[in-house]
Sequence to fold (510 residues):
Amino acid sequence: MCGIAAVYSEPNASDPLHIGAVGELMLARLAHRGPDDRDHWSIGRHAWLGHTRLSIVDLDGGRQPLGSPDGWSLVCNGEIYNHGRVRARLGEENFATASDSESALALLRMRGPEALDRLQGMWALCTATADGGFVAARDRLGIKPLYWSRGGASVYFASELRAFPEGVQSSAKVFPPGCYWTPRTGVVRFADAVGDHDPRQWDGVTAEVAEKTTREVLADSVRRHLMADVDVGVFLSGGLDSSLIAAVAAAEYSKAGKRLKTFAVGTAGSPDLVAARQAARFLGTDHHEAVFDAARAIAAVDEVVASVESFDASLIRSAVPNWFLSELASRHVKAVLTGEGADELFAGYDYYHRDHGAPEELDRELERTLGQLHGLNLQRCDRVTMAHGLEARVPFLDADVIAHAMSLPPQWKGLEPDGMEKGHLRRAFVGWLPENLLWRRKVQFGTGSGAQDLLTPYFDEHVSDAELAVENNRSDENLRTKEELAYYRAFRRALPAVRPDAVLTRFATV
Fold:
């Protein structure tokens, strides 16, 4: 995991020294994403690539930028979990390191950017060639961040908005997931969020067989996401999704004679802390807790908003406890698994069933929200962890899991007779968790951790209705609550030049 920055300029209009100076400034602003190493290369007169590194795979040989004998160079942020299969298909003789990122470099060199859909994982990358070529690309879901902006004859790319020079920050926007860009082709889509899935495969298949398949597909994904040359932990909230991830990961660590490290956060006595503690005891993990109170939560808001680069109230409300959780975990591990994505795959939110109950409509809404995750939960997940030099991995959002889950008949994702959500997923893991945790009802993280009970009342008391009305009339931002106005002010302090409409996504449940 790391941070990347890149600059592409028209070869006849560029000053390599100027490009390098701007690039180094951008890279310095991403130092928190890669505390272990930093390097950059200039490629001809037209390109500059920079990389800050958090060393997780190929600790000795994975330094970036990566190069090839025929003049290709690459910086990549993320993890490519099927790099072994890519190596086998392309031939080991085409590789110089054990870095998973080199599989992207080899694939681009030998098959071109159209083949990027063969990469399974989370990644954003930029490549440049000695003869003037350049490619920027991002994984199909946008699990890893990438932004871009144009200024004069140059195009700038970076992992976070804060990295952009002041002169071009105002025009910075999200680079679209599942797309690549070259100066010759412009933006080209190579994959969509959901990918290929065939619901006909379940014709005549019992729900019990499908549940077994769901268990096997998710367990296989967790095993892939444990790929590392360092220990990997799990964020454990005590909810269904993170507890299932922890159960599979703990079993894998036990096979190797090790104990999985798990991490929980909340206010003293909060539901999530209590449930996570029970899950950890049941699974036998090496468990750690971060406890916060109102003073700590409110004091962290400015840092959290600046890191998340959003002012959406639900996002910040959940990001504050994640801030303390990431701070704790970073003292013990370099990477963690999280439960992000399960609700969007298995219909975990109440509004799915309330507003989109018809099977076909539910499927469409699940696809829509999966496509929006890059600007919501995945943005929070990446920024808050990387602010502490910690990598977050999302096994539910593996391409194989998505293809499997989206192929399931939508009626299998409906509510149970008692109104419980995600019954299919719960039944798939009977025996893996205590019954009360396996069937614990969905609780929003900001609520279960206790953050909402601290932040919302505080800002309701300290921000007036008149202030909210004045700001909405002045800025036309359509701020929905006094709490959101407080976060908007923090956003403006951190990123005064960024256009909120270029980066803000809002979720239907709020």
Q: What stands out?
A: Residues 359 and 411 are 6 Å apart (CA to CA).
